[in-house]
Amino acid sequence: MSDGALPSKPSTMLPSTPDLQSAAFQRQLEWARGEDAADELAPLRDRFALPRAGNGAPLVYLCGHSLGLAPLAARARVEAQITDWEQLGVLGHERAHTAWLDYAERLRLPLAELAGAQPAELVLMNSLTVNLHLLMASFYRPGGERRAILIEAGAFSSDRHAMATQIAWHGLAPAEELIELAPRPGERLLRIEDVEAAIARHAARLALVFWPGVQYLTGQRFDLARITRAAHAAGCLAGFDLAHAIGNVPLALHAEQVDFAVWCSYKYLNGGPGAIGGAFVHERHLGAQTRPQLAGWWGHDPVTRFRLASQFQPAQGAAAYALSNPPILSAAPLGAALPLFAEGGLPALRAKSIALTGYLEQLLHVVGEGALEQLTAADPEQRGCQLSIRVCAGAAAAAQLSQTLLARGVVCDRREPDVLRLAPVPLYNRYEDVLRAAWQIGLALREIPV
Asked: Domains in the chain, please, with CATH?
């Protein structure tokens, strides 16, 4: 599927009562396996550890939006660092096979490709919300009438906590200065023109617009360039949470003039649980200390860092935002994952993502007709690989459906009260995975009270 077009379906789709032994399923299975056999990216799947059930059967894993799978090379990379620690002790900072002193810096180039950034605009450090607070110290500087922050209603809780506490930290009232934009009545997704209109409407009082690249619950992808342009036209700054965007959808942070962004590395980047996070600061905000920032010794110029001088001398680029030396054992798995993106190629991975997600969408419309509501946009350009579906019968039915799927070897997740999220990740998921997941959803829906 090199052009990203959706696959042609077999002529007979799912019957009203799905059956894994039915002729309809077998036709679909034959077609899906044919697509997988022709997939040039298929060998990447073999580079990941695939979770298995208690009986040893591989699980259908569609939860990369929450935690990406482990690259097989991650274990060796972590063990190599432990070996260096055992054999070298403190000397490992300079003599380890990959010296610890610049370990995180070595990951910036492949990460810059995914972020659409200059390497100097990136820094690997901490975790997402810690990085958000650090950058807010520079980019949220309320003064005069410009004190408000615009976010989406229903933002990820940690983002909202960060925004509210930053406002309060400056002695202001979150109830007054945190503006939350909701979709139109009767709609579940935000229209980009409504985001732009809200920015223009509140322009005189906005200090910052903070937005997700991809919304965690609905899977809606936002146009970062349009939001950034609207924010700048209003005289304020634009920052983004890219937790569900980086490694999932194309990004061009530098070209689109984004002011700052933060992300975690354990979802689509496959960096492992609690993996080291990342941050982006556009080059126009770097170099001349144009903005105040919180400082720590690892953000000091590496040439003179170990002189431990009392006067802070910032490193070049976004590296000046680092506070402490990076956790090497946390960064090592990310070093195993990032080369796989380059090996697959971003255009090919995006094309496969569109095709896999489109196939899942087609199947769910059939098996879930009348029982499921798709929350994620139908337009492939307005989503990544995540599809969010609402179980129309409510929270109890959604919980039962989620549990039934897991018992049958399908790993997705549920978000309160009644939403299931499924993400066919192009690095390691197949058409057969998508088919088996959709078919099991169809079976389960006919067995639980909906």
From this structure: 23-69+345-445 (3.90.1150.10), 75-341 (3.40.640.10)
